[in-house]
Specification:
Layout (H helix, E strand, L loop, with lengths): L1 H19 L6 E9 L12 E9 L4 E9 L5 E7 L10 E4 L7 E6 L2 H8 L4 E6 L7 E4 L3
Antiparallel strand pairs: 1-2, 2-3, 3-6, 4-5, 4-7, 7-8
Length: 142
């Protein structure tokens, strides 16, 4: 009888401790390879670039770093766009500022934005005067 009482008390205490522990935040890594051939429609640019990002599911903070080279001229803008699958276009989700290379920044996402990012529905686009709709682009992938 004493064994069962001790076991029940131990199990109850363990359950309370487990429930009291905060949920572990997950940090998800993303990368985008920026290419002219990924633009919709594709451009003739020789430009290339990369963006790496981390998303903290607890704080909902997206942090990024990126660089590019070989564009037809200075970047006029850079953004995260979404939601859109590869081959589709979408509106601006988060501006990237400054847009000079290299760049870095962070933003706190809404629940909807986080869902789109995690579903692979965001891309990075770098715009120039010669390619106002975007010169190089890359889908954010885990």
């Amino acid at each position: 009888m004493t064994f069962f009482r001790t076991f029940a008390i131990t199990l109850a205490c363990a359950s309370v401790v487990a429930l009291a522990m905060p949920a572990m935040a997950e940090v998800v890594n993303f990368k985008a390879d920026l290419k002219a051939s990924s633009e919709v429609p594709p451009t003739n640019s020789k430009g290339t670039g990369t963006v790496t990002a981390t998303y903290d599911t607890s704080s909902k903070k997206l942090t990024w770093k990126g660089s590019y080279s070989g564009l037809t001229g200075p970047a006029t803008a850079a953004h995260f766009h979404g939601p859109a699958a590869v081959g589709k276009n979408a509106g601006v989700a988060i501006p990237i500022s400054p847009n000079a290379s290299p760049f870095e920044g962070s933003a706190t996402l809404t629940d909807k934005q986080a869902q789109e990012l995690m579903a692979g529905e965001w891309y990075v686009n770098v715009h120039t005067a010669a390619n106002k709709a975007g010169e190089i682009r890359g889908q954010m992938v885990k």
